[in-house]
Design goal:
The complex is a heterotrimer of chains A (351), B (314) and C (262). With 351 residues, chain A is of the alpha/beta class. Helices cover 26% and strands 25% of the residues of chain A. The mean pLDDT of chain A is 95. The N and C termini of chain B lie far apart (41 Å). Chain B has 314 residues and is an alpha/beta fold. Chain B has two domains: 131 residues, Glutathione S-transferase Yfyf (Class Pi), Chain A, domain 2, CATH 1.20.1050.140; 166 residues, Rossmann fold (3-Layer(aba) Sandwich), CATH 3.40.50. Classes of the chains: A alpha/beta (351), B alpha/beta (314), C mainly alpha (262). Chains in contact: A-B, A-C, B-C.
């Protein structure tokens, strides 16, 4: 019998990988650095997920309880991996709780870190209480309190959502698209309009990247059914006149400056590489992509391969990713991790 | 992590690069910088046989010539003056030396041009990383610091309402200032605060001033004077609207721009403003008890001595 | 009025018909352009490449028209027709005639670099404005701008002495741009200083005006810079000439010059 798989990170990808391995009878050790399982959707309190429309606490909560009750998965919370040595089939991981785990392979499902909006001070986050992030709006909705201005708890009459905050911006070294923010913003805009039908919602964009089926289900639907307004402008600055927020920019399609009052401004924040990636790279001996994510190798031969044999990667650890695709990648990585743990030499590049 | 006291010790003697403006229209900045250095026991060693940094004007003719000119200044500091920290009070000089450093570290083409001209000119080619350029603000902040100023000035500027005006070249573009925006303690490119910090330590009351890094139109002060006057007027009026009695400056081009266009705004547009314009070094000098003439305040274009007398600062 | 309608009311688009009857109605007189064609008939495909070959223009191809440059622009706030984003679009698509409408504005860029600070693609719009202003002058679309005259006087002094003397730059500029030496506001400034000018300072100013401040041992450096200026000028002229002839030949399509930063 081959050794268990080490899974690092208890978000959707980690939970999916643990469940996939267990479902074919393979045991795993799931290491999570925080005190709870569920990853960003649970820890950041997401509302309804794209594309299912299910509440995060139900959908991801179900994945958590399924793993929690599975005897094939050994859960280690508040724990990180200190060292990882050996070869495929025979790795030894030293954990921060002082224990050692003998494992056959590993999967890094270490996810991402939300962009911190204080790094774009011109857009008012941290200066004005009613400038918030998409994550905060998710929390307003998921907590049942509803979308309210943090300054005085009033219902906003006008909401602006700014896209590409911390994405696609060379000035702050974020040369990637965070993939999900356009769709998430369209989804949130519809949620806001549903809760507060009198509220006007504007989305300020450079490009709209609601790829695939999200085009009709989110972009078109938000315009056609929910009358969300899309303005092609990148905002220069968010200020305040003491009463309302003032959004300034150029409406590029009509070639005119805009200075428009809003009650609430929402930053559609992007996905940064996990802040721990430098450490993870050193501990596991895996290469990082030049933007700081964990680099994939052999894209067409072995799903989720890294630069180190026997160590795999899945989900937003690779780059900005959706929840459902993270889960799909985790299932594929689990298959390869089981094969690697068994010392299967068929894991080769398809070249 | 840099040892703070080691660093302070290192900066007590720096290569001083006044630049052309401080020899001419910005003489008051030069005089006051030297006066406070003397008062604080800091040594300034003038860069030997320095030349113009290239300013914006030469950059417009060709950016690589500006890179060369700045590189020669750095070469003179390192090779002729034997000091690898260059302190430049003028925002334009400071900006250009920083830009040259960045270009030489990152662009082979710039290195090639600088090497070629340096060889023809017959001096050692400056290599990126040999010197470090700092602003007069960094210099005082890192040697004497706020605590040191508090002790020495005993809050002498108390009751003086100041708008701190930093201008463009001190903060933009951000990539040539890798040491800025590095979290607590570092300077911010969007909301700079070093001048606020120093003057507050001397007792001054800094007013809220949203136009800290607005542009004074210095590039076109003669070639498009109306534009410059409008931009300066915005700055002067915003400072007054926020209750400032004085605008503190840190750049000779901004400073003389504010002074000249304050007069021009009145002549041309009938808009009179009364806010005083003083270099931050002149204000710190007053706080340290140095007399106004020793700080070159009488050589400023604008008149502020009666105001300073009224405030009990001279 | 939306951008696509603005052109309708430009003076050159207003036509006059002494006798025009449409469907039995006499419509003679001044009329706007609903009967004029509004089709774009040609693109100057060399224009972007030429501007990209001048210093500052290198990254123009990165632009994706987000508008960050225009909405952060110091000059735009005072002169709404000053619109870097729009000009970059015109240059990239080759709409030369449209760009030339604004030819007298482009040099007004104050180089505050707010656009460079904001641009998410690092186009360096400030550099593009300078390159475009140069291009307009080199192509003869505009006379040398006051700003260029100033830059040249300044650079000449540096080549000669290594340093500048600001009063001298000012005097020469006023002379070369045919402006009176004593503008009323300058007079006021001189009077202000004179009122409390100590003799020493006055003497020093006079001294530095007669004996220009200079860098010791500058001669060789100045000559080396002068050589380089001639070299780049020739290079730029060649780039603009070559760009124009390439565009004219279908056999030899223009190719993007790869920039080192890419």
């Amino acid at each position: 019998m081959s050794k268990p798989i080490l899974i690092v990170g208890g978000g959707p990808a980690g939970l999916a990988a643990a469940h996939a391995a267990a479902s074919v009878g393979h045991s795993s050790v799931l290491v999570e650095k925080t005190a709870i399982l569920g990853g960003a959707p649970i820890q950041s309190g997401y509302a309804k997920l794209v594309p299912s429309g299910q509440w995060a606490k139900d959908a991801i909560g179900g994945m958590v309880s399924r793993v929690e009750s599975n005897p094939k998965v050994e859960k280690k919370l508040n724990t990180v991996v200190k060292s990882f040595d050996g070869t495929p089939g025979n790795f030894v991981a030293e954990l921060s709780d002082g224990t050692r785990a003998e494992v056959g392979s590993a999967i890094l499902t270490t996810g991402f870190t939300h962009f911190d909006s204080v790094n774009k001070p011109e857009w008012g986050f941290g200066l004005f209480p009613d400038v918030v992030t998409t994550t905060q709006v998710e929390q307003m909705i998921s907590s049942g309190k509803g979308v309210r201005c943090p300054s005085d708890n009033r219902k906003p009459k006008r909401v602006a959502i700014l896209l590409c905050v911390g994405s696609r911006d060379r000035q702050i070294g974020r040369e990637w698209c965070s993939k999900i923010c356009c769709t998430v913003s369209a989804n949130l805009a519809m949620e806001i309009r549903e809760e507060l039908p009198e509220t006007h919602v504007y989305i300020y964009y450079m490009d709209i990247r609601t790829y695939g089926l999200y085009e009709s289900d989110y972009y078109w639907k938000s315009q056609e059914e929910f009358k969300v307004k899309y303005i092609k402008a990148r905002i220069a600055e968010v200020t305040s006149d003491g009463k309302q927020l003032i959004v300034k920019g150029e409406d590029t399609l009509v070639k005119r400056p805009i200075t428009i009052p809003f009650d609430m401004v929402v930053h559609a924040i992007g996905m940064d590489p996990n802040v721990d990636n430098m450490t993870l790279s050193a501990v596991f001996g895996v290469d990082l992509h030049r933007h700081g994510y964990i680099e994939r190798k052999d894209t067409y031969g072995v799903m989720g391969a890294t630069s180190r044999a026997g160590v795999f990667v899945a989900g937003a650890a690779i780059g900005p990713e959706t929840i459902d695709d993270s889960i799909a990648q985790a299932n594929a990585a689990a298959l390869n991790a089981i094969a690697a743990a068994a010392g299967n030499s068929t894991l080769q590049a398809a070249e | 992590m840099v040892d703070v006291t080691e660093r302070a010790k290192q900066l007590r003697e720096v290569a001083y690069y006044p630049g052309c403006a401080l020899e001419g229209s910005g003489n008051g900045y030069d005089v006051s910088t030297r006066a406070i250095a003397h008062n604080l026991g800091l040594k300034l060693r003038d860069v030997k046989d320095w030349n113009c940094c290239g300013a914006m004007e030469v950059k417009n003719i060709d950016p690589k010539i500006q890179t060369y000119l700045s590189s020669r200044v750095l070469s003179q500091a390192v090779n002729a003056t034997r000091n690898n920290v260059v302190m430049a009070p003028c925002n334009g000089c400071y900006h250009n030396l920083k830009k040259a450093e960045y270009d030489l570290a990152n662009d082979q083409n710039s290195r090639d041009v600088v090497e070629k001209i340096s060889a023809k000119a017959g001096h050692k080619t400056y290599e990126a990383g040999q010197a470090e350029t700092i602003h007069a603000l960094d210099w005082i902040k890192e040697t004497i610091g706020e605590e040191g100023l508090r002790e020495r000035t005993k809050g002498k500027l108390a009751g003086l309402k100041i708008a701190n005006y930093y201008g463009c070249m001190y903060v933009r573009p951000r990539h040539i200032f890798p040491e800025k925006d590095q979290g607590p303690g570092s300077e911010s490119t969007s909301k700079p605060h070093f001048m606020d910090d120093l003057l507050a330590a001397a007792g001054a009351e800094n007013v809220e001033f949203p136009l800290k890094t607005a542009c004074c139109g210095g590039a076109h002060t003669l070639s498009d004077s109306d534009m410059s006057t409008k931009l300066v007027l915005n700055i002067l009026q915003a400072a007054e609207a926020n209750g400032a009695e004085v605008i503190a400056t840190e750049c000779p081009t901004c400073h003389s721009g504010l002074e000249m266009h304050q007069i021009r705004a009145e002549k041309r547009f009938g808009k009179k403003t009364n806010v005083r314009i003083l270099y931050f070094t002149q204000l710190l000098g007053l706080a340290l008890g140095i007399g106004p003439r020793k700080l070159g305040i009488h050589t400023n274009i604008s008149e502020s001595i009666p105001f300073l007398v009224e405030k009990g600062l001279t | 009025m939306p951008i696509h309608e603005k052109s309708l009311i430009r003076p050159e688009n207003i036509t006059t018909h002494d006798e025009l009857v449409i469907e039995g109605v006499d419509v003679s007189g001044h009329w706007s352009t609903f009967i004029e064609t509004r089709v774009i008939a040609d693109y100057n495909e060399a224009m972007e490449e030429e501007i990209a070959s001048l210093p500052g223009g290198e990254n123009i191809h990165r632009c994706w028209q987000c508008g960050s440059c225009t909405n952060s622009c110091t000059v735009h706030a005072i002169e709404p027709r000053f619109n870097p984003r729009y000009w970059i679009y015109l240059i990239r698509t080759g709409m030369e005639s449209e760009l030339l409408r604004d030819k007298d504005l482009i040099w007004q860029c104050v180089s505050c670099n707010k656009c460079t600070y904001a641009c998410p693609r690092d186009v360096v719009p400030e550099g593009v404005m300078k390159a475009t202003a140069h291009w307009l002058e080199m192509k003869g679309h505009v006379p040398e701008s006051p700003s260029m005259i100033f830059d040249k006087i300044f650079t000449e002094q540096i080549v000669e002495h290594g340093r500048i003397e600001d009063t001298k730059v000012l005097m020469q500029f006023l002379k070369r741009t045919n402006q009176p030496l004593m503008q009323d506001w300058l007079k006021q400034i001189v009077m202000n200083i004179a009122a409390r000018l100590p003799m020493k300072w006055g003497l020093k100013s006079a001294w530095s005006f007669v004996f220009h401040p200079r860098t010791r041992g500058w001669k060789k450096a100045g000559a080396a810079i002068q050589d380089y200026i001639i070299e780049v000028e020739q290079h730029h002229k060649a780039a603009l000439g070559a760009g124009a002839s390439r565009a004219a030949s279908n056999d030899n399509p223009p190719q993007r010059k790869l920039h080192a930063a890419e």
